[in-house]
Write a structure and sequence with these properties.
The chain is 33% helix and 15% strand. The protein is elongated and about 160 Å long. It has a nine-stranded antiparallel β-sheet, with no helix packed on it. The chain has a nine-stranded antiparallel β-sheet with strand order 31-30-29-28-27-26-21-20-32, with no helix packed on it.
Length: 1009
Amino acid sequence: EGNKEPAGSSMNTDSSATEDINQMTKMSVKTEEDFDDEKESDEPPAEIPGSTHAFLFTTQVGSVPFNFSIAIILMSTICLILALVFNLQYGLQEDFLGIPVNVTWEVRIAQYMAIIIALLMEAEIPTGLYMLRRISKPQLNREFPEISYNRFVLSNVLRILMGYLFLVNVIIILIQADEVLAIFYDVLALQFIQDLDDIAFELSKMRVLGRRMQAATMAGYFEKEFEKQREGLKMKWKMKFALKAIYFFNLAAFLGAMITVSTMQLDGQFYAQSITLNFGDETWPKAFIKNLQGQDIRVPLVYAFFNGVYERKGYHNGRPMYVERNKLDQAEYDVVNGPPIPEEWANIATSEDFIVQPAFIKHCDIGGKLYWVFDHDLIQKSRDSNQSGSTECKWLARSELYNDYDLLEPDRNWEVWTGAIQEASVSLVSNKCEDDSDCNLNGECNDDGKCECFEGDGVEFFGLDCSVTLEDKCRDLTHETQQSSWEVWDIGDSLAQQYNRPCYRYVEGLPAAGLDAPAPGDGLVMVYTGLRWMVMYLPGANAEFAIPFWGWQIYNFHAFWWQRFSSSILAVSEPTQATSEYFAGVDFFMVEERGGQFGPFGSLLPMQLNEQEGRGVFSCSLSEEEACKFCPDGMRDENIAMPGNETCGSLQKYFSTLEAVSNKCLDASGPTGSGLDAYCCPRANQSPCDFCNGGVTAPDTVTFPDPATNTIFTCDDFMTFTRGFMQQGEETCTGLQAAMPLCCPSDSVAAPAQIPESGGGGSQCPFCPGGVSAEKASEAPPEAAGATCTELTLYAATLGDGSSDCSNLQFLEPSCCPTEDVGEVEDATEDAATGETTAEEDLTEESAAEDTTAEVPAADEPAADEEPAAEDLTQQEGAAEPAAEEEDATEEPAAEDTTAEEPAADEDTAAEDATQQEGGDGPAGEGAAEPASEACGFCPGGVDPDAAGAEVPGSGGSTCTDLAAFAGTLVPGGDCDAVVLAEPLCCPEGGGGDESVRNFFEALEAGGN
């Protein structure tokens, strides 16, 4: 029974259904024609939309819902602003708001579809305007007096502003889009941000965000219907029209912006008009080339030769094509006429030989895949020009797979053909500037997008981006090893340049070896070729008849095609991209040989000093502040000889080319360095140790052994020792100066002091005035006790002209001098043989002894004004002790006359006397010196075998053995005291002392020669 219906229930149900049906029957269906804008009932009542925006006026200020509403508004607004800022910043980094240069037809359709979708999805703007039109201030105050109308208006204005922020983001996204899916993803993401207020309201209504938030959503404000208020017909039409007009205005603005961008893209206005291409050091050693005459040749393909500017010209595969421009002013190459050929070269070359065909960059289909490619019509991968590996076009270098339109967008990693595919880094940049920073702050970016380079003080800027600088100091260059001069090549008022670098031409200074100086009328130039500098020989470069020819070449030069004249390339540098002080640390290499076994530039020889890597060859002039200051206040004599065949003057010029901070400069002029400038330009408190200031004239055979260190020194070594801070009067200086008679007998400072005063007027003894015979220079005359002709010449420089020793030495000239220099000696010998002196058979052994005695004063009878201790050691070498204590007074004048003016009685006697003068080793018998009764104590234990043949400094070329033999003819004291000074060098035990060579010279100076 519990399931039974109560009495009358069925009747009541039927009655209610009947009433509903009757009510529906009374309702009439309205059509579009039934609506009348003048009737209030035509428009449904308005309700406050469920959104957190409404909390701004439906809740108390400071309440949780109010604050939550503020947070949602701020979050949405900040997200939209961040999106806008990001898109604008991305656009500013690109060209014109980041609009792609062009898009595919799929992307273009999606752009226009997204406009409609975005306007349909955007509801904030129409909602805000609708609420402001339908709910008036009086109506709101009447229904809800507690609500502030100003807060109501603020809430709707924020809706409208957020809606427009959304639309602005959408239009930026659309014009920057180049992918279909990216368009819809980005639009949906923006819509989600804009709908955060509605999402948050629904979550609050479900009590997800708390009870107070739910209570705020359940307030009666959201259920109240606001009936349309009676208003004037004119105002009614204005409000309705405004709402529709704003909506369609947004649509028109979107379409207008999109149509404008599409038109500009299709017109190619966003393509780069000019780009700069830069390859690395990739090289194909033997590329297949078909020249303009149709000949197949093989030359190295150095990709960097094609670096430079390419201008947009035409289209290929729906994308722009870029063609190479010349390397001087980026104009088109002359591909028609060629240069004017001088009459002098009419049978050598034709104009067609020099025409340059430019390379190009285009978009290509290679095996069904799309790439940007670099190519040249005359360069093939194989001898078969039709073999390209593609159904559409061939290539020499290609980008990554790329189906879009912007050449500058693909990654730098390209592939180049070097006989096989090789990865390479390729740089492609637009030549259009956006601001001054694109001009490297060395120029201004004008309204046409071109850099106008500044004219700096002492510096010139050039290049499309003003990145290349030419300082005044680098307008002139110096070759370090050859000291040749180069200067920038000016053509009238313009600077000759290639590949955005100035050209240099040779001025003067090249030696015969290395880079040869050009023939008259020809020239040498140094040209940048994209990655390397090259030194080229240009025939007729300075000849009047060839000026038109080379004028054309300057505008149409191309390093790749110039390889056909490879013999003119004399040197190449290592790769460099320096844009200022181009040659700092850049090594150069001379092209020695060419052939298949060598690299693309041939067999290369380093040109830098000592072949040091990274040293460089050419250097700019230094400013006064930068240059090394060597003797800045002048020098005592610029002709003073210095080590390395230099003089003080040449060193000053050399150091002026070095930087003040260089190690060489600091060593030469610093207080702790070598002190070269202290010798050339001593300070007021300095007195340098003068040694061979006129230069060393002794040959390298003149050496000075040092037994203590087992070292052999030369005169050049002694010069080096003195070229520093050594001072005059120091013991070391005095010892070294003792060697000057051997090292530089004719030196203007040392020689006069060394020439004996006796027997002459102060001039040197003439011995072989015409020089020693070349074939006899290293020979020793039999009478010279082992001394060579060269050493006898040096010994003669220590003797005075007219002295007895000089006269005796001159008897050896027939053995050393050329034939024409010995005639006078031979004539004198013949005169002596014919009777001017006593016949040989009448000469006694005593008269021979008297003859010797007259030539050299005895120890107890020195010559006037001449101290025996000061005589040269070699001078003593030729003297012999008299055979008797007293001489016959009647024979003495005759003997003296014979010695002073005439030779001995005959040639044999003269030779015998000369032998006695040299070493005392003449043959026993007539005229020979008798051994002293008490021998001079020289090396009592015998001469050291290791030093027996050693030359003794200051002895005129005598060896230790020579001095030992000579000492055997002496008695202690006098000349013996001079000879024993050489014991430290000759004796096994050093003669009782351990003096080194330096101590020996000190003793030599103190005790005499």
